[in-house]
Amino acid sequence: MSQYVIETHDLSKQYRIGSLLKPKKTKEYLTDLFFEPVRRVRSTLVGGVPTNAEQIFWALQDVNFAVKPGESFGIIGVNGSGKSTLLKILANVVQPTRGYSVTRGRIGTMLEVGAAINPEMTGRENIYLSGVILGMKVDEVEKRFDEIVDFAGIEAFLETPLKRYSSGMRMRLAFSVAAHVEPEIMIIDEVLAVGDLGFLEKSLNKIRSLSKNGITVLLVSHIPYLITDLCQSAMWLHDGQVKEMGTAEGISQQYQKYLQERDGISDNSPFVVAKADAAAVTDAEIIAEVASVDSPSQVNQDISQTP
Known about the structure:
single chain; alpha/beta; 6-stranded mixed beta sheet
């Protein structure tokens, strides 16, 4: 029996881009329609992927990594590096072009928070809908209903259709449901930029509690602080490939250095943390970066005023 609950082997994902958006004349369309089957057969025989090379975009290329039971594993990288694509493959939302992945255990996902909510239904109805879509049974939703409502802070609006909620309230409700699924493996994709500062603090604590309860957590972010604070190990994805893999602190430091060099960020920036001070980063500083707030001290004040 394998010692890992998540494994990937040469995992690759390819998309076709460009030509689908380019208008074609009737003659060009008919020519492509006639020759496309021939191109596909030829590409298959030579071991390639049946498409024009100029239309290929590799979102992932030969990604290999493994996660142990109960481990908190972070995936970091700039926008467009393949992080979300990787998580969607692991969650069986999309299929890889090449290679394969293995997951062992019940999976809960926080991908694209709010995707499972219906604006025409009330908050109460959406809690049940989202919970079932995310893999919970009706009795499980009922058991955790009060916790979900309290976490989201929407008790006064339970019987109101979601189309009358603010965008922040919708995201808080969707996150709250997903956070209470409590499976064996939790896959989390860039979902902390929702709600107010007090809710961000609650979200951080909820993710920590999942890990403390022995749930394997796979967290995607492009913020070094989050990876260092919430994860034990990490992987840096760049242009769809694994650039580095190691401890969460080490990978976060390398990634931060890369961003400083790429974007010309000064060492005096409030969001640049020296290695010796990495362990001293507070929740307020993490939340300040997620919420794009200039003053961590103001965040501390807002959190202390949150009921």
